[in-house]
Amino acid sequence: MADFGRALALAFTTRTIRQLAALHHPLPTDRLALIAELAGPDDTLGDAFDLAYAELASQYRCEYVFANSLVHTLSAPGHTSNAISGLRVSMSIADLIVADKSAAAYEIKNGLDSFTRLDMQMLCYSRCFEHVNVVTTRQKASRAAAQTAAHIGVVTLTDDDALDVVRSAGGGLSRLDMSSLFRVLRRGELLTILGRHVGYSIDVPNAQIYRRLNALFMQLPIDTAYGEFVAALRERDLRSRQAAQSAQLPASLNAATSGLRLTPPGWRRLATQLRRPAHEFRTRGARATVTDR
């Protein structure tokens, strides 16, 4: 089952979703053919994703199952929160960030993962996020709590995909680092923040703008900077997220599409592909037929 589970999990990557949504790109036929084999004669490709996800959740609880359960629970449709998968934070890449009134980082350590890099990951996230959590199995919860600082939350995923808080994450801004916050923000976000607080508009050549923005950002009080940091993450890619919601994608793809930037036509192409009959993808020669620009 492990080899089959790993192969199924490849269908739930950002790369697969991007290729499905692309206008001129070969489809990831090997990945799609595998999940299409699970579908019935009247099922769509979206149905096939749901069936493949159910197989993963019951037989091969990989990182994606944990991530999708987190997104489903913490960033439900209609909420103001924004869930971002795979955000680079200093020397690490966070499995999931959820920004709402505050921001929290989640590092997943499932039954297949080691804790080798956990100390470095927790250090990086603690410099950027008020709340930091390890999400793991019930069997590894005690080890996660023992290996991490007291402010790190420990959460387990139950057999029925509910989240069980073993230790709550501690709050407070004393651990935050201004340079770390700065490096996560995009240029446009920084310009908006500094325009609002110090009236800044671009006054140097492009080659010098990053240094100029850094110098001004570092002068902000930490509570102001963090509040703006959270707001920027909450509003990030809002237009793309609204288009994603309009596409009404399968719940099994929540984590794969969180933080994914596509144009509105790209989301429409993805939705159209997912409505196609699954049997059209069962051969390795399946071809894209969507032309929406």
Automatic annotation (TrEMBL):
It comes from the Bacteria. InterPro entries: Sce7726-like (IPR047729). NCBIfam families: sce7726_fam. This is Sce7726 family protein. Keywords: Plasmid.
